[in-house]
Amino acid sequence: MAVKRITVRVSPALHKRVAQAAAKRRVSLNQFVAEALEASTRDQESAAGPQRLRELSALLAPAAEARGLTEEELLRHGHRMSRPRVFPDTGVLLAMIVFPHDKDGHPPLAGEVMELSAAGAFELVLSRVVVDELDEIIDRDFPEARPRVMDLLAPLADQWTRWPTPEEIAAALPFTTDPEDAPIFAAAPAARPDLVLSNDFRAFQSPLAKTFWEQNNMTVESLYGLLCSPSPHKPPAEQVH
Predict the structure, then answer these.
(1) Around Cβ 1, how many Cβ atoms within 10 Å?
(2) Are 186 and 168 in contact (CB under 8 A)?
(3) Helix (H, G, I), strand (E, B), or coil: what is residue 196?
(4) Among 211, 201, 208, 189, which Cα is nearest to 231's?
(5) In this structure, is the dihedral angle defined by the CA atoms of residues 50, 56, 58 and 61, taken in order, positive or negative?
(6) b/e for 66-85, b at 16 or more Cβ within 10 A?
(7) How many helices and strands (H and E) does the chain possess?
(8) pTM for this entry
(9) Sheet arrangement for strand 219-221
(10) d(Cα 136, Cα 222) in Å, to the nearest integer?
């Protein structure tokens, strides 16, 4: 039987509880976690079954009939509408596309986020200003990655949000530590994301920057924070293999 490897990052406290539970059952930690994932997956599939479809269909039946949608299509549409919108900065987008795997073939944090995006866990929203800056970096430092960049970004070209206006850039400037970041700050509100994704803590998670995000009803998060916890400032999590 083919076996796939999954790395799960958890808090130290949860790691200890899981290890104790596995020892109590006298099974390996790997077996215990695999069985727990299987049971959770069954529960999720059951929860998304016919009952949920009936409830959703009853709620939106008039609109569904008018548009000729099936229950399954309506459910898929509802899932898309409920996905959080994530706006990556240039550094994160570069890491997601150019460095999806480490030297051992495993996905680093950016690779895991890319996999989540591909699986539909959230909606990736891009700005023209981020894509233009990425293009410059690719041409200068990673020309061999150009085909991969085109394959991933070209299908989304009609969804890129506009460049911010000079007035919008000027309004964002006081909240930046580097004036060159002002266009990206100004572009984010136009994309209407739920979350801004950046590993540049100095520029994007400074007190001034956080004030800007809060004023525009957005939060900022790191790659690690998006994957593991609501705050990137928590202690490092342990891994279950």
Answers:
(1) 2
(2) yes
(3) strand
(4) 201
(5) negative
(6) eeebebeebbeeeeeeeeee
(7) 13, 6
(8) 0.61
(9) 123-124, 85-88, 195-197, 219-221
(10) 23
pLDDT in tens, 116-165: 888 888 888 999 999 999 999 999 999 999 998 988 888 888 888 899 99
Task: pLDDT band for 79, please (50, 70, 90 cuts).
Answer: very low
- For 150-204, write each residue's pLDDT tens digit: 888 888 888 888 999 999 999 999 999 999 999 999 999 988 999 999 999 999 9
> What is the 3-class SS of 203-219, one letter each residue?
HHCCHHHHHHHHHCCCE
Residue type present at position 117:
S
Dist CA 235 CA 231 (whole Å) = 10
Q: Which residues pair with 88 in a beta bridge?
A: 197
d(CA 182, CA 67): 42
* Alpha-helical runs (H) found in 99-181: 109-118, 128-141, 146-153, 166-172
122: number of Cβ within 10 Å: 18
Q: Residue 220: enclosing H or E segment and its boundaries?
A: strand 219-221
Lowest mean pLDDT segment, chosen from 27-31, 81-85, 228-232: 228-232
